[in-house]
Design brief:
The chain is mostly helical. Helix content is 51%, strand content 11%. It is built from seven helices and five strands. The protein has a three-stranded antiparallel sheet, covered by helices on one side. A two-stranded antiparallel ribbon has the order 2-3. Helix 1 crosses helix 5 and helix 3 crosses helix 4. It is globular, with a radius of gyration of 17 Å. The two termini are 18 Å apart.
Amino acid sequence: MDFEYVAHGLALRTGPGGAFECQHGAAECVGNMAETVVKSMTEGNAIAYMPFDVCVEDGEPITEELVRRCAQQNGLDGEEVVAAMHDGRGARLQEAEAEKTEALYAGKSSFHVPYFTFNGEEYENYYNMLSDVCNYWQGERPAGCSSWLKERCSVDLK
């Protein structure tokens, strides 16, 4: 099973080298880049990078200080995340996120963000995500699947 969160949104390229204007302003661009850097630092492991993303997106204004704090809370080097946002690594990674978004929506008249891919396809049924992940899981299911199914179905699947 493959899951990926692409932190790009409705950002518009404003120049070469990762220059973007984000739909919700500069703070959104800071968040997008930080999330992309952390995804790269964790080698695309959603279990490792999603807690950072949730922390950054928790409603507080997105600043480099928040990025550092969320990184530290999740066992990452906040200074390294911020350094990558300024030394060109983040810009290159953000360009790659833009290309993924453009490829997914090529030829479509409209699209929405944020978006996830699940097994390489755009995933739109957010309300059933946990159920779908648990149903598609191969092998022993994670504890979260068993507790979720037990709560909703009075079934204990192992």
